[in-house]
Amino acid sequence: MKKKLIFSSILATLFLTGCAKQPQYIGDQNSASIAPVTMGIDRGDFEKAAMDATNSLLSSGALNKPGGGRYVVAIDNVINDTTQRIDTDLLIKKIRIAMLNSGKAVVTTAIKVGGAESTLSHSVRELRDNDEINQNTIAKKGTMIAPDMGLSGKIIQRNAKTYKGDQLVEYYFQLTLTELASGLAFWEDEIVVGKIGSNKTVTW
Q: Where does the UniProt annotation place the signal sequence (predicted)?
């Protein structure tokens, strides 16, 4: 009898899972090329947001430095305002690569909110006056380059129910490029990724 109850429970679970509406993108998201779709933020979402953001940034002319040359960009705060534990570098790293490949900007790893991304630039300078190190090979004072621009952002999640009882989830990828000397935003954009699926599907 106990085995029959367990078997019945398994069948019921499989039936409910099979009947649940599979998550899908809303709007024109080229969802056919991105599968499977989840209600949470996945790789396809980061790739779309990064591609749309970099296309917008590079076409805006915000990185066209007067007189030529390249801007130095530092990474500012990128806030995760979602119910999920995500590494925002999954988004920012793709944008950084695109900026570097464009030839219009370089990214400093020595200056970043919360501490340097690469501590080696500072560590080698601590070797000054170390008799074991050839002092002519150590970076001189005043050689580190300060950033011209700061890239900041925020990822926002909004959940709602449709009139049919389905779950609608929207993710807002907001990005801002600020000129640090003036504090003025040279570029901003917002990329929205929307998904709809069963209300039984979790987003985390």
A: 1-20
Read off the CATH number of the domain in which 157 is found: 3.40.50
Locate tokens 């076409």: which residue? 59
Total domain count, the chain: 1
**Domain of residue 55, residue span:** 21-64+71-108+145-197
pLDDT tens figures, 53-102: 999 999 999 999 999 999 999 999 999 999 999 999 999 999 999 999 99
Q: Which of 95, 93, 89, 13 is nearest to 58 (CA)?
A: 95
At 164 the three-state DSSP class reads coil
Cα separations in angstroms, 5 against 9, 12, 102, 105, 121: 6, 10, 62, 64, 65
- Tens of pLDDT, residue by residue over 133-174, are 999 988 889 889 999 999 999 999 999 887 777 888 999 999
